[in-house]
Write a structure and sequence with these properties.
The chain is α+β, with helices and mostly antiparallel strands. It is 44% helix and 23% strand. It folds into three domains: 80 residues, 434 Repressor (Amino-terminal Domain) (Orthogonal Bundle), CATH 1.10.260.40; 60 residues; 99 residues, Immunoglobulin-like (Sandwich), CATH 2.60.40.
């Protein structure tokens, strides 16, 4: 059975295309296209990018992207089975033990903090009871009590775009991106393909279009995303595969988006005031 790379190469040759033409048309480096055709997936920075490039290349050649991705996953699984017998013992079990120790430590810290807070509450109630017959000192004692109670430790909130955007535009599409890790993006604005690019960690970018804007996202879980002021990150945060977001501006003062993952398309999501 032909490999994924052989299928891609044969289809390209059948269409009479050379690698330079393909690289220019898809805005993907020539060396990555060669890596796909030769099955040298390790030359591509991340498996997420490999899947995205395969999908784009399959569409460009007129092949079934779902079939190509499935064949690729079968090949990768076979490679993992061959390479798999690594020493799982010390590293794996070491990590398990570390995780258990951390869990015990966190439990102990939580228990100590809880006991301290309980002791402070009991001491505060006892102090207030002593001053019931001496109202003049009540306010001072309460103030002293409040000063002695430590602030509860801050709980880390999930990473999100903390900018509060309340102005929702409907005269054009405005997409704001912020990366929490390196994220690859492909763009099509108003039916025109734009050069793909990579956002570095903590880098931000704003994209605009008149009517339609389609995004292909390599790591959706590492991206904070708003469309015309509407927060969209929560709809893609738990997705691990390459995601396509299609956004369309309606004359009826609303934005319609569709999310596509592994060929499975969501119901249209309407964003409006």
């Amino acid at each position: 059975m032909d490999s994924v790379g052989q299928l891609l190469k044969e289809k390209r040759l059948e269409k009479g295309l050379v690698l330079d033409d393909v690289a220019d048309a898809m805005k993907i480096r020539k060396k990555y296209i060669e890596a796909l055709e030769n099955g040298n997936y390790s030359e591509i920075p991340d498996k997420v990018y490999t899947k995205s490039f395969l999908k784009i290349y399959a569409d460009f050649l007129g092949l079934d992207r779902v079939y190509i991705l499935k064949r690729y996953m079968d090949e990768v699984i076979q490679e993992d089975i061959i390479i798999a017998p690594q020493s799982l013992d010390q590293k794996t079990f070491g990590n398990v033990n570390i995780a258990k120790e951390k869990s015990r430590f966190n439990l102990l810290v939580g228990l100590i903090i809880g006991l301290l807070i309980l002791a402070l509450i009991i001491w505060g109630i006892f102090s207030l009871n002593k001053t019931e017959n001496n109202p003049g000192n009540v306010s001072n004692n309460i103030e002293d009590l409040m000063l002695t109670i430590p602030e509860s430790p801050a709980i880390a909130a999930p990473i999100e775009n903390n900018e509060v955007q309340t102005n929702h535009q409907f005269d054009k599409l405005v997409i704001h991106l912020k990366a929490f890790d390196k994220v690859w993006l492909g763009i099509n604005a108003d039916s025109k393909d734009l050069p793909s690019f990579t956002l570095k960690k903590d880098e931000e970018k704003t994209l605009e279009a008149n009517k339609t804007l389609n995004l292909t996202i390599g790591k959706p879980y590492a991206l904070a995303l708003t469309i015309n002021g509407f927060e969209i990150s929560s709809k893609i945060r738990n997705r691990k595969n390459v995601v396509e977001i299609k956004a369309m501006l309606s004359p009826n003062e609303l934005v319609q988006i569709v999310i596509n993952e592994n060929g499975i398309q969501s119901e249209p999501i309407i964003l409006k005031e």
